[in-house]
Design brief:
Layout (H helix, E strand, L loop, with lengths): L4 E4 L6 E6 L3 E6 L5 E5 L4 E3 L4 E4 L2 E4 H11 L13 H11 L10 H16 L13 H4 L17
Antiparallel strand pairs: 1-2, 1-5, 2-3, 3-4, 6-7
Length: 155
C-alpha cells in the first residue's frame, strides 16, 4: 500500500501514484484529491521505501505507522502537544522504544507525525505492504472439465 503513496521534495503533503509517462508521473493529492504532474527533476520517494533507524537495524515506515495506529487507537496524533525536542523524542520512545536517538532527528519525527495524520485523515487503516502473490496462486482454481474420450465414428 505504501509503495503507491509518494512524498515529493518541495511539495507539502502526500500523493497517490496514478500513472507513469515518459518524463512525468501523474499524482493525486491524498488530502485534497487534486491531480498534478510530477516531473523527472522532482525528487520522488515512495513511503514504502523509507525506514526508521533503530538500534537493531532499520524498521520499515509502514510498521512504525502500525505501532502509532495501535498506540493512538486509530486516531490522529495531536502534534500541538509535541513542540519541543524532548516531547518529540518521548513520543518516538513510546511508539518505537528501539529507535536510534543519534540518527533520528526531530525533523524526521515531525514528518512521521505529519504523514501519519494525513493518511489517517484520508481514511487509511492499514499501513503494511501486502506481499504480492504470484499469478498462479492469486487465481481461484477453476474446476477442470473432463472431456469425454474421443471415439472414432464407424463407417
Amino acid at each position: 500500500m505504501l509503495k503507491k503513496i509518494l512524498s515529493i521534495s518541495g511539495r507539502p503533503g502526500l500523493y497517490k501514484l496514478i500513472s507513469y509517462g515518459k518524463n512525468v508521473v501523474v499524482v493525486e493529492g491524498v488530502a485534497d484529491g487534486k491531480r498534478t504532474p510530477a516531473h523527472a527533476r522532482d525528487r520522488i520517494v515512495a513511503l514504502g521505501d523509507i525506514s526508521i533507524y533503530t538500534t537493531e537495524g532499520d524498521k520499515p515506515l509502514g510498521e512504525v505507522f502500525e505501532e502509532v495506529f495501535k498506540k493512538y487507537e486509530c486516531k490522529a496524533v495531536d502534534a500541538a502537544n509535541l513542540k519541543t525536542g524532548d516531547q518529540l523524542r518521548g513520543f518516538m520512545a513510546d511508539v518505537l522504544p528501539t529507535f536510534d536517538a543519534d540518527r533520528v532527528h526531530n525533523s524526521d519525527i515531525k514528518k512521521l507525525i505529519s504523514w501519519y495524520n494525513i493518511l489517517v485523515g484520508a481514511g487509511f487503516t492499514s499501513f503494511k505492504n501486502e506481499e504480492e502473490k504470484p499469478a498462479e496462486e492469486s487465481k481461484e482454481e477453476e474446476p477442470k472439465e473432463e472431456k469425454a474420450p474421443k471415439t472414432e465414428a464407424k463407417k
